[in-house]
Backbone:
């Protein structure tokens, strides 16, 4: 913090008024401040630079400390076909966000803002990219980002990022009464109310596009090494894939099924940015496309990949990838050596046959 000193001068008002008449538009205080600035500028250059550098460093440290103590929440709101991304500070946690949602959807006409974003005063607009970056910070559990929420009134869905499970999504019709019952007691603390809210919402989660969670990522079959140096995981389609990917396979009206693949980039030491989907239709045709993963989905997918690799191989992803890489390098070396031996034999035997005859 800067070491400020208060300098107070006392002067009769008549002297002050008389002096200011001759200062050409300056007040006496402004004039004295300019005099102080000039005195500072007359200091030896080395001393002036040293003091200026110290003050600048102290101001920067103070700003950094204030920013370090500040918390945020990030929101993506969809309502009537429009989208907004914004952040708030201090950041709200799940309980507060749910209370705001209930306050908005249950308010009598004319008593609440026209749009949900009107419930947040001082919200700062952000980009979709900044929203994803704040989501990544939330998943790191630093305490800096206390909540990340996707509130979609057009789909009537409320999604929140959990630091272990990734996204959790509930229908708004379940969130509103749950938060009401969780906060009825005036004597319960905020932690107790949050615990009650989570207890009431337990088992009500739904699958939502853009909000895959830990429960959506389970694998089967062995981990395969792809030619492009990536590890390939087969994701079991044991959840509502129609809600997640817009397909129509969970029905007896067709014989379609969906193959889902997740890839781990060995060089980057992280999951690839997309899931690879192949829709196999009953008529024998196929359709393939990619599903982009956001920061929360990638983080929880990485954890599930690591867990599955440990179960299947007893090794971490990095260790298993290194072993496969060494095995492939060994096979390539041996294959190259065998090709060389064949070439050598093909070159020797004809001349030997000519000498013999």
Residues:
């Amino acid at each position: 913090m800067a070491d400020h000193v208060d300098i107070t001068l006392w002067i009769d008002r008549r002297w002050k008024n008389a002096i200011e008449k001759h200062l050409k538009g300056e007040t006496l205080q402004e004039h004295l401040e300019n005099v102080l600035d000039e005195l500072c500028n007359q200091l030896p250059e080395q001393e002036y630079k040293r003091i200026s550098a110290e003050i600048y460093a102290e101001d920067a440290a103070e700003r950094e400390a204030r920013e370090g103590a500040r918390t945020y929440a990030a929101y993506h709101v969809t309502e009537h076909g429009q989208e907004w991304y914004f952040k708030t500070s201090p950041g709200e946690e799940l309980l507060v966000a749910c209370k705001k949602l209930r306050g908005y959807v249950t308010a009598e006409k004319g008593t609440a803002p026209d749009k949900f974003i009107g419930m947040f005063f001082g919200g700062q607009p952000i980009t979709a990219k900044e929203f994803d970056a704040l989501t990544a910070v939330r998943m790191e559990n630093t305490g800096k980002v206390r909540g990340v929420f996707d509130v979609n009134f057009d789909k009537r869905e409320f999604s929140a990022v959990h630091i272990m499970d990734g996204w959790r999504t509930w229908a708004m019709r379940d969130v509103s009464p749950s938060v009401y019952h969780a906060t009825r007691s005036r004597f319960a603390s905020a932690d107790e109310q949050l615990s009650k809210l989570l207890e009431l919402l337990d088992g009500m989660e739904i699958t939502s596009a853009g909000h895959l969670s830990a429960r959506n990522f389970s694998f089967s079959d062995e981990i395969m090494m792809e030619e492009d140096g990536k590890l390939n995981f087969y994701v079991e389609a044991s959840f509502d894939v129609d809600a997640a990917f817009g397909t129509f396979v969970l029905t007896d009206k067709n014989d379609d099924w969906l193959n889902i693949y997740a890839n781990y980039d060995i060089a980057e030491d992280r999951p690839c940015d997309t899931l690879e989907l192949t829709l196999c239709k009953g008529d024998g045709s196929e359709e393939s496309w990619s599903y982009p993963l956001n920061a929360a989905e990638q983080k929880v997918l990485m954890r599930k990949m690591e867990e599955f690799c440990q179960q299947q191989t007893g090794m971490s992803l990095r260790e298993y990838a290194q072993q496969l890489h060494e095995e492939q390098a060994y096979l390539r070396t041996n294959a190259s050596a065998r090709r060389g031996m064949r070439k050598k034999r093909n070159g020797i035997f004809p001349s030997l046959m000519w000498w013999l005859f």
User: Anything to note?
Assistant: Residues 101 and 259 are 37 Å apart (CA to CA).
